[in-house]
Every structure is written in structure tokens, then in C-alpha cells.
DNA sequence: TTGTGTTTTATTGCCTCC
DNA sequence: GGAGGCAATAAAACACAA
């Protein structure tokens, strides 16, 4: 549509085209290009590529501002010997190419960030596994203890209620301290005996397998605070233990 | 030379803004 | 409602291997 016919006077000659043998000039005068009737009267022509000089100037203009105001479009068209519509189309296509390039760049950047994060995550998982293995190896009694605690807390519900009730009858104003100490020591002793250790020392490998207790016993000892089961809030302690158990097994 | 893939120029249709 | 932008697409020009 925008191409001109052979024999049309050429004020602005596309240099590359002019040097091509057998190829007609693509551009004509600015005045002719601005006349709509000119295009209407021309027979459809195959499209031609812009010259290097034209592209160079268009690129420079695009770098300054990728949007095209009407004045700039007209001025560029005048300087390049192109139709204003052609300049607009070139900018349109150039913006599309820029957007595609930008998307590719963004994709590469995000992919690199993702890979770095994934590697970091894998490292953390490995560290986590290593720490869990250390815990399981160096304190085998800990595993048993966690299981015991869960079972014991469930089993203690009934007996605690009975003991507390009896204590309250004997010493109604001192039950908190006395009962806590009593129950804490009781629970601690029960746990260590039921998981097959004394609460001090280490298990041998065969003891780990068979669960037989040596004289040395277990090298893992839970803090006393863990056994300080308050009479009035042992439900909260149970919840805490549940959290610990969950942490350990997950 | 020819087939094929890529790039560039241009069109069409739809949407938004003034 | 017209101008301009964008996405999708057509089609010519170009590059290049076989």
C-alpha cells in the first residue's frame, strides 16, 4: 500500500535500494507521501525494507522515547522520507519487539532467582536431615522418651485426677506446690524406667536394638521444667508435649 | 536452487481515552 | 466518534543449510 511505482520521481532515495539491481526505489517525496490520494492511486506494491540509515535514526528516536507524539511522527517522517503512518507502524512493531525482549530478560532473571532459592532450600533440607540423624544417633533414648511421654500423659489423666482430689482433701491450701513436686518426680521416674534407661549415661548399640538397659543407662535427660506439670494447667503441658512430638516426627 | 525458519513491514480488529 | 495503542496475523524479505 505504501510502496511506490516505478518511475515515480524520487527525492529521498533509499540508498540500499538504489544500489540494488533491478529494484525500484521505495520512497518518493515527502509531499507525495503525505497525500492520501497518492497511495489510493498507486497499484499495490510489494513491501520494501527500510534502509540502514532510516532504521538507525528510528532506533535513536525510539531510545529517546518509545511513544510517538504527532509532532515527532511528522518530523521523523519528513526527515526520513517516509509516510507518517509508516513511522507509526515502525514504532508499533518496535514496541512489540521491545516487549518480547523484556519478557525474555525478566524470565531469565526470575529463573536464576528461583534456581538460587531452590538450591538454598535443598541445602536447608540436607542440614535438617543431618541434624535429625544426629539427634537420633547421639540420644536414642530421646525417641523412646517422646513416645513414652505421649503415652504417659494420656494414661496419667485418670490417676492425676484421683491423686489431686486426695491431696486437696488432706491439704486444701498447699496442693499446688506439693502436688506438682510429687507428680513431676513420679512422671520423670516412670518415663525413664518405661523407656528402658536410668536417665543418665548412654545405651550401647545392642541395647538400642533390643531395648536392654545397661548400667550406664541413657545419656539423654529431659529438663526438669518439662516435668513440672502444674496441677491446674497440665492440659497446657500436654499441648506443649504434643508440639514437641510433632516437631520431632515431622 | 530450494526448502525452511526468522525477521521485518503492514493490516485488521478490538479496546481505551479524550 | 475519532485517534492511537496493542495483539494477532499475513506476507514479503532475508538468511542459511543441504
Radius of gyration: 43 Å
For the secondary structure, the number of strands is: 0
SSE succession? HHHHHHHHHHH
Class by alpha and beta content:
mainly alpha
- Number of helical runs? 11
Judging from the principal axes of the Cα atoms, what is the shape? rod-shaped
Largest sheet: none
The proportion of residues in beta strands is under 5%
The proportion of residues forming helix, as a percent range, comes to 55-70%
* Poorly predicted runs: 1-43, 197-220, 225-234
Provide structural commentary.
It is found in: Nucleus. It comes from Zea mays (Maize). Belongs to the HD-ZIP homeobox family. Class I subfamily. Pfam families: HALZ, Homeodomain. Keywords: DNA-binding, Homeobox, Nucleus, Transcription, Transcription regulation. The protein is mainly α and 250 residues long. Helix content is 69%, strand content 0%. It contains eleven helices and no strands. The chain has helices spanning 15-19, 30-34, 36-41, 52-64, 70-80, 84-138, 140-170, 175-194, 205-210, 224-227, 234-249. It is rod-shaped. The two termini are 71 Å apart. The relative contact order is 0.07. Mean pLDDT is 64; it is low at 1-43, 197-220 and 225-234. The structure holds a DNA duplex (18 and 18 nucleotides).
Amino acid at each position: 500500500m505504501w510502496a511506490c511505482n516505478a518511475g515515480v520521481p524520487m527525492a529521498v532515495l533509499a540508498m540500499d535500494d538504489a544500489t540494488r539491481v533491478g529494484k525500484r526505489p521505495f520512497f518518493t517525496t515527502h509531499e507525495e507521501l503525505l497525500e492520501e490520494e497518492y497511495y489510493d492511486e498507486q497499484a499495490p506494491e510489494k513491501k520494501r525494507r527500510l534502509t540502514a540509515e532510516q532504521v538507525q535514526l528510528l532506533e535513536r528516536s525510539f531510545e529517546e522515547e518509545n511513544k510517538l507524539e504527532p509532532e515527532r511522527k511528522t518530523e521523523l517522517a519528513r526527515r526520513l522520507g517516509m509516510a507518517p503512518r509508516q513511522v507509526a507502524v515502525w514504532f508499533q512493531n518496535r514496541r512489540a519487539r521491545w516487549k518480547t525482549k523484556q519478557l525474555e530478560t525478566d524470565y531469565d532473571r526470575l529463573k536464576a532467582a528461583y534456581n538460587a532459592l531452590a538450591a538454598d532450600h535443598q541445602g536447608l533440607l540436607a542440614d535438617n536431615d543431618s541434624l535429625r540423624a544426629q539427634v537420633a544417633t547421639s540420644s536414642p533414648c530421646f525417641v523412646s522418651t517422646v513416645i513414652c511421654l505421649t503415652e504417659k500423659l494420656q494414661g496419667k489423666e485418670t490417676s492425676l485426677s484421683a491423686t489431686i482430689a486426695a491431696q486437696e482433701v488432706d491439704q486444701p491450701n498447699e496442693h499446688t506446690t506439693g502436688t506438682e513436686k510429687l507428680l513431676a518426680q513420679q512422671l520423670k521416674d516412670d518415663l525413664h524406667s518405661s523407656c528402658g534407661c536410668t536417665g543418665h549415661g548412654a545405651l550401647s548399640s545392642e541395647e538400642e536394638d533390643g531395648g536392654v538397659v545397661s548400667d550406664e543407662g541413657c545419656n539423654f535427660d529431659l529438663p526438669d521444667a518439662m516435668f513440672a506439670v502444674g496441677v491446674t494447667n497440665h492440659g497446657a503441658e500436654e499441648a506443649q508435649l504434643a508440639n514437641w512430638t510433632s516437631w520431632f516426627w515431622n
